Amino acid sequence: MENRNGLVVAAEASQSATVAEREVALKLLDRTVAPKDQRMAEQKITLGADTQFQEEGFVQGLRDREVAAHVSEYVKGNLGKNSLSAAERADQRRSISQRKRKLIERVFGWSKLTGPLRQVKLRGLKRVDWFYRLTIAAYNLVRMRRLIPIEAIAQ
Left (φ > 0), alpha (ψ -120 to 50) or beta: where does 39 sit? Predict the structure, then answer.
């Protein structure tokens, strides 16, 4: 999801496992963001994520892609699992990403309450993935309608 307008940039259904979600997240990042050698020097990419993404392999994958890891950290219990460096924790953009990452929950809420994902009647990952992407595309259309100023619609 991009932070400025709250539109979903890429979506893919995966197995319900944290390892699978992290692998898909890196795959989606590779699909949507240009490699670091093809980006302009001033173009900075950030990625905000939940605490479950606080895993050394995932954070290292973000570092390899020169993406600023704005991953939520453990505050009690698993403090030894926090993988961010001091510089990554001190990044001023981190607090913005942590606030904006909650926008994705609106997408899931809409797709389960208004959209058809409350009880998926399809079987098989390919079919569920297709249905999920279609639902996310519908959400983006609804969201874009709200982004257009009313004056532009009236003309």
Answer: beta
Rounded Cα gap, residues 55 and 96, in angstroms: 21
DSSP letter for 36, please: G
Place of tokens 């993404």: 53
Question: For the whole prediction, is pTM greater than 0.90?
Answer: no
Tens-digit pLDDT string for the chain (155 aa) = 888 888 999 999 998 888 999 999 999 999 999 888 888 888 888 899 888 898 999 999 999 999 999 998 888 877 788 888 889 888 898 888 888 888 888 999 999 998 888 888 899 999 999 999 999 999 999 999 888 877 766 66
